[in-house]
Write a structure and sequence with these properties.
By secondary structure, the chain is mainly alpha-helical. The chain is 77% helix and 4% strand. The chain contains five helices and two strands; from the N terminus they run αααββαα. It is flat, with a radius of gyration of 20 Å.
């Protein structure tokens, strides 16, 4: 299988999956349980993406300036800081630690 064939197959599968979403009955999606599960899946996927991007590099565990920056961002979120403040604090933390080392 060539690279372009794999891309076209992946596109077709994504389109079919999206199209299948229209076939699910509306009553099934309107349930409270489905809404809670959908909200939790979103948080879990975003958390997994953040952890992989913050700690993983070339298939190994990497601890550098991103880890304390992630901690500062977590504390700022816990203190209910606005999102832009969280991003700026995390960026400043990472930049400061990288400049210091």
């Amino acid at each position: 299988m060539t690279g372009w064939t794999a891309v076209l197959v992946a596109c077709a599968l994504c389109f079919a999956l999206k199209l299948a979403g229209y076939l699910v009955p509306e009553g099934f999606l309107a349930g409270e349980r489905v809404r809670r599960i959908a909200a939790l899946i979103t948080v879990a996927l975003l958390s997994a993406l953040v952890v992989v991007q913050a700690l993983g590099e070339d298939g190994s565990l990497t601890v550098d300036a991103r880890v304390p920056a992630l901690g500062v961002a977590a504390v700022a979120l816990w203190l209910r800081a606005p999102f832009i403040v969280v991003v700026v604090l995390a960026a400043l933390t990472a930049a400061g630690l990288r400049a210091a080392t």
